[in-house]
Design a protein that fits this description.
It is a single chain. The chain has ten helices and no strands. The longest helix is centred in the middle third of the chain and has 35 residues.
Length: 234
């Protein structure tokens, strides 16, 4: 009876739906990858033995490799999303152009990332792999910057909408609650984007950010991704 209660529990069904998605599995792997990046840095800074650090370094590299292979082909999704955003003539111009920029940034990142897969897996080494990876990070930074602008603009728009709401009326109360939900979602996305931005900024040496901070920021953005995907599969 206890086994049946566990097997047929709604949480188990929800979990199975979550891990059945590529995004769900990727976010879980990403959380472990960036936590390993942070923890390896922490162990190194606290003068632990190499034998204690090595498993975390290996986890970081291997999970990163698995995710790189899983991303192959995902660039097409973002090229399509960019085309759809470009055709959305009724969308707010700022949100429309930032959406196109964000999707093209992600598409460029994933396309160039694919070009490094054979080298990274050791199947076929390429002298251009490092250059491709650098350019991939530039595209990722561009996509994230566009997303940050879009979320900042969205929060400004919500503030303007809220100023016009009359909370004394029933419709105004409903609108106020709707704005609160939209603001929370936008703030969550903005937090995730700012955390993710530390990765290409650090990789491109645009700022001196140590691995510990990048690892923590990546872990936080990954947990946000897990949370959002969990909600989508509810």
């Amino acid at each position: 009876m206890v086994a049946d209660a566990l097997v047929y529990h709604p949480a188990v069904a929800h979990y199975l739906k979550f891990v059945a998605t590529t995004v769900g599995r990727d976010k879980l792997l990403r959380t472990l990858q960036y936590f390993a990046r942070f923890y390896a840095w922490y162990l190194l800074r606290t003068n632990n033995a190499k034998t204690a650090i090595q498993p975390w370094e290996t986890m970081k590299k291997q999970f990163g490799m698995v995710r790189k292979v899983l991303r192959v082909g995902k660039n097409i999704e973002h090229f399509k999303a960019a085309a759809v955003a470009a055709d959305a003539k009724t969308m707010d111009p700022v949100l429309r152009y930032t959406a196109v920029g964000r999707q093209l940034g992600y598409a460029g990142y994933l396309t160039l990332d694919i070009a490094t897969v054979l080298d990274a897996t050791g199947i076929r080494k390429s002298p251009s792999a490092k250059k491709f990876q650098t350019e991939a990070f530039r595209f990722w930074a561009m996509g994230l910057a566009c997303s940050v602008v879009a979320q900042t603009y969205t929060l400004w728009q919500l503030r303007q909408r809220e100023a016009r709401v009359d909370r004394k009326e029933g419709e105004g109360v409903v609108e106020s609650k709707r704005i609160a939900i939209e603001r929370a979602a936008s703030r969550l996305q903005l937090t995730s984007d700012l955390c993710d931005l530390t990765v290409p900024v650090s990789a491109l040496a645009w700022a001196n950010i140590d691995d510990g901070f990048v690892g923590l920021a990546g872990t936080l953005s990954s947990l946000i991704g897990v949370y959002l995907q969990w909600k989508k599969t509810a």
